[in-house]
Hints:
The complex is a heterodimer of chains A (269) and B (198). By secondary structure, chain A is of the alpha/beta class. Chain A folds into two domains: 39-173 and 255-268, Roll (Diaminopimelate Epimerase, Chain A, domain 1); 177-245. Chain A contains seven helices and five strands, in the order αβαβαββααααβ. In chain A, 54% of the residues lie in helices and 10% in strands. By secondary structure, chain B is an all-alpha fold. Chain B has a single domain (2-175), classed as LemA-like domain (de novo design (two linked rop proteins)), CATH 1.20.1440. Chain B is built from five helices and no strands. Chain B starts with a helix and ends in a 23-residue tail after the last helix.
Amino acid sequence: MKPKIPHALICLAFVIFAIPAFAQEHELGWIPEKKQQLVNDLVGLLTPNEQKKMERRLVAFDDTTSNQIMVLITPDLGGDEIASFAQNVWKEWGIGNAKYNNGVLIVIKPKTISSYGEVRIHTGYGLEGALPDLFCKDIIDEDMIPHFREEDYYGGIVAALDVIEKVCAGEYSYDRRLEEHKAENRNVIAAYIIMILGIVAFVSWAKRYEKKHPGAFTSTEGPVAGPYFGSSIGHSRGSWDSFSGGGFGGGFRGFGGGLSGGGGASGRW
Amino acid sequence: MKKNTGIIVGIVAAVAIIAGWFISTRNSFVTVEENTNGAWADVQTAYQRRADLVPQLIETVKGASNYEQGTFIAVTEARSKAIEMNLNGEDITPENVAKFQQIQDNLKTELTKAINVTVERYPELTATGAYKDLMVQLEGTENRISVERKKFNDAVMAYNKKIRMFPASMVANMCGFEKKGFFEASAGAEVAPTVSFE
């Protein structure tokens, strides 16, 4: 009986040590976990100094123009095509602000012994005019890949940023749907006011009724009105919290929830 | 008399609560319906981009010395059928969306064929800048189509779910909010063919 336990332990140890070897390739549909920073080097191709310098530059660009450019260097694409990988990352992270959708995502998957290097410039709706697909393709072919071929990842990204920042500065797009939503919200508010008036009238009627007929409502009135108002107060407090979550100071103020329609271009080397 | 006023106030209050619920429910339908309409407009724009690539392809190939008239009849026809079908928000029924998808898939098939023909007959063209540009635009277009289709499907799912949930579904029935269609995964393109064992 005794030797059985060590056997089991050895098996367990094998399983545990085997996991990292499989985990290197991420599972299908994997995307990186969201972080509040614009330069995300998951491979470690950039030195800490280069990362800091690039982050500062992109934060400054975000502060002055509100355009958010995010750089993502990833070990793999979760088994997906680079365009749809970029789209999925975008959906999760929300690059650019929600009003102008003025974000850009640069995804780089470095070349390995067994796979191509892949790069994509993915644009938000608001920057499709400033950065048409063909233009993105030019940046990739002429400014990025020549550097990447010589393993100069920092130089390639900086060359691309030089061009992208130049064309994006001052480019905005107006989202017509925002206006439409405002109009509908007014209707909803009107409906709520009618409803609340009804509830107030009902409660006051019930109180009067209660005065005349003691005991008719005491058991129901409290629990009915209580949770309703309680929950609505809690709800509004919650949305206030998310407003103040941005934080202050010189750092990155956070992603704005912009949208992308899948614009941009990709390249390989 | 006083007793009667109390009852009347109570009835009025109850009616107001129901009316408020009805209006707010109906308005929330309008909002999600507008979302699907907006998403549909984006879908059509994305497909329009693909249709616009057909004349561009023909223009590119026309420059070749051995260009033959009539090479691209099939794709031109597929294109004119595709741009003919324009659906408004209220027409996004399951049948119409299925038809739209079929016509658009046909255009995609014909366009792919036309590009293959181009590569076979005019191989010298594939080295030109115009052809490379066309390929970049084609790739960008296909990406946009898949993104907008997905967004539209999500919007329709949200809408369909909302109008079918009881008790809000009563309001939907009364006000004529109907189920909308969405894109199925294309046969052959995104899905591996299923084998029938019959």
